[in-house]
Amino acid sequence: MIRGILNALSRLFQPQLTPSQLNYAETAQWKEILNQAIADLRVSVPAIVQSFDASTQTVSVQIAIREVVRTPSGPQNIAISPIYNVPVMFPSAGGFSLTLPLEKGDEGLLVFCDMCIDLWWVRGGIQNQFERRRHDVSDCEFYPGGRSQPRVLPSYSSDSAQLRSDDGTVIVDVAESGIALTAPKVTINSSGDVDISAAGNVNISGTAIIEGKSFLTHLHTGVTTGSSDTGPVL
Fold it and tell me: Is the pTM higher than 0.90?
């Protein structure tokens, strides 16, 4: 008896097709609707800078991946139109910013926001939505960085942090003590000049070594009284 009740309940709660589903494949239609909704949703995508406006810190960008679009002649890969006036998201906080000289061809990531960002971008602070829209192509922000394989950095340092030029001719290297170093170390390499300008003193704590010689303990040859030049540094 109990088994019979369980079988009856099982048949009662088992998903059943309706007559329309049997003859019309309604489930497939709903799947198609969901797939189309997902296709319309934008989240993030790689993009390439076309131009940069330093006064507004905005870029025009070209999305780096073409969309597959249905056409009467069949699916085609079609480029999305360029997007203009996209805010650039530089690392910035606490009264300091890290700025980058963006130029055409630089790569990065476009992030499409949940809501309309128009009033926030113009006014700052907390604002109402100017229009009610979600993940719209016009509500994106550009995060510079990220590299495709043809643009990977040469001589990448895997054991230090660097602020560097892409070609490696200018590098500020910050390394912790570890296997290769007995103490933390900051190294500045430049193929050109290194200029330091300060309204006050330039203070050096520790021994200053210039071309292998201590600035504090070096000796001069040919030291004589009067106004004549001294000899070279020993």
Answer: no
